Amino acid sequence: MGACLGACSLLSCASCLCGSAPCILCSCCPSSRNSTVSRLVFTSFLLLGVLVSIIMLSPGVESQLHKLPWVCEGAETPSILQGHIDCGSLLGFRAIYRMCFATAAFFFLFTLLMVCVRSSRDPRAAIQNGFWFFKFLVLVGITVGAFYIPDGSFSKIWFYFGVVGSFLFILIQLLLLIDFAHSWNQQWLGKAEERDSRAWYAGLFLFTLLFYALSIAAVTLLFIYYTHPGTCQEGKIFISLNLVFCVCVSIVAVLPKVQEAQPNSGLLQASVVTLYTMFVTWSALSNVPDQKCNPHLLTQLSNETMLAGPEGYETQWWDAPSIVGLVIFILCTLFISVRSSDHRQVNSLMQTEDCSIALEATQQQQQQAAACESRVFDNEQDGVTYSYSFFHFCLVLASLHIMMTLTNWYRPDEMHRMISTWTAVWVKICAGWAGLFLYLWTLVAPLLLPNRDFS
C-alpha cells in the first residue's frame, strides 16, 4: 500500500515536470509565482552542470575520460614544464569546456526561442514555464553530443568565447551586488524611520565599516603577497589605481548634489563595490604569469600537488580566488532567479519590470487562492515580469564565466604551460574598471541628464 502511495506521489510530481506552467494539479509544487519557479528550475539546471564539471576534476573521472576520442589526441608523450604534470591532468579541463559548452548552447537555444514573449498567453511561454522533463532530456542530449566534438581548434576558439562571456558576467555580478546593497540600504533606512530606532542606522554603519575594513586589509595583503620591491610593477599599478578609483567613487556617492538627486545612495553601496573591486583585483593578480609575483602558479608544486601519472591524479587546481569566485557565482545566479528590484535603473539594465501596487495586490490575491490549492499560480497573464530571452542570455554568460573560473582561465593552446596568460589579467582588470564606471554612471546620471526620470 505504501509503495502504491509513493508511486502516485511520484506520478503527481512527474505531471509537474511535464505539465504547463501553473501546474494546477500538482500537489508537490509549493504556492508561488510561476515566474520565480521557472527561473529557479533553469538555474538548478545550470548548477547541476557546475556540479558535474566539478566532479570531472576528480581523479577517478579523469582516468575514465581516456576512453573518449578527443583525450590527448595526437599527444603520445606528455609535455612537462617545471612540474610533474602530464597530459592526463588536462582531461578535466577539456571536459569542463564541453560541459559548459552544452549548458551555454542549451540556454542560448532558449534565448533565441523566447525573444519577444510578452505574456504567458504566448504559446512559447508554456515551453518556458513547463515541460521540465523534456527540457532536461534536451540538455542531456546536448551534453552527450558535446563530448564527441573533435578537439581540433574547438578548445582554442571556445576559450575566447569564455573570455568575452566572463567579462560581461563580471559586470552583471557587480550590477546585482549594487542592486542588493541598494535594496538593503533602502529597507533598513525605512525600518529606522518607521520604528524610530537608531539600531538600524548603527547596523548600516557597522556593515559599511566592515566592508571598508576588509577592502583595506585586502589591499594590504595584495601588496604583501603579490608585489615585491623592484619588481611586479604591473601589480603595484593595478592595486594602486583600483584603490584610487574606489576612493573616488566613495567620495562621489556622498556628495551633496548626488545625495539630493538620489537620497538612497550612500557609502553602503560604495563599500560593496569597493570590496568586490578588490576581489576582482585579487583574482586578476592570481593569473599573472610571473612566478615572483603570483604565489598561485602551478609551477610551484609542493608534495601535495605531485602527479602520480595515469595510476592516480593528485594535482590540486583549486586556489582561494577560485573558491571565493565560485561562491559569489552561485549567490549571484540564485539572486538572478529570485530578484524583484525596485530600482528603476537596474530594472532597465536587467530587462525586468517594475512591480506596481495594483499588480502586487492582484498577485497577492492569486497567491492566497493558490495557497489553498497548493499550486504554482500564473502571475504573467497581463505581462511577463522579466525578459525570458535576457534571463537565458545571462545564464549563457554564467556558463561561460564558470567555465573560466573552474579552469582557472587556462588557455588550451598552450599545452606545455599550466598557467594563465596576461589575457586573463587584463580582462579581469578591465571588467573591474568597467564596473566602477557603471556604478559611477548610476550616481551622476541624474545630474548629467536632469530631464530623465531616474527615481
What does this structure look like?
With 455 residues, the protein is an all-alpha fold. It is 65% helix and 1% strand. It is built from 16 helices and 2 strands. A two-stranded parallel ribbon has the order 1-2. It is globular. The termini are far apart.
Q: Report strand %.
A: under 5%
Number of strands: 2
Strand order of the biggest β-sheet:
1-2
Radius of gyration: 24 Å
- Low-confidence blocks of residues: 1-15, 21-29, 73-90, 299-316, 355-374
Strand/helix succession: HEHHHHHHHHHHHHHEHH
* Structural class assignment: mainly alpha
Average pLDDT taken over every residue = 74
How many helices in DSSP terms? 16
Largest sheet: 2 strands, parallel
Q: What sort of overall outline do the alpha carbons produce when their principal axes are compared?
A: globular
Approximate helicity band:
55-70%
Terminal-residue CA separation: 60 Å
List the keywords:
mainly alpha, 455 residues, 65% helix, 16 helices, two-stranded parallel sheet, disordered N terminus, single chain
Task: Spell out the blueprint of helices and strands.
Layout: H1 2-18, E1 32-33, H2 34-55, H3 59-64, H4 91-113, H5 123-129, H6 132-146, H7 154-195, H8 199-226, H9 233-253, H10 256-261, H11 267-285, H12 320-338, H13 344-350, H14 357-373, E2 376-377, H15 388-406, H16 422-448
Parallel strand pairs: 1-2
Précis, in short:
This protein has helices at residues 2-18, 34-55, 59-64, 91-113, 123-129, 132-146, 154-195, 199-226, 233-253, 256-261, 267-285, 320-338, 344-350, 357-373, 388-406, 422-448, and strands at residues 32-33, 376-377. It has 455 residues and is mainly α.
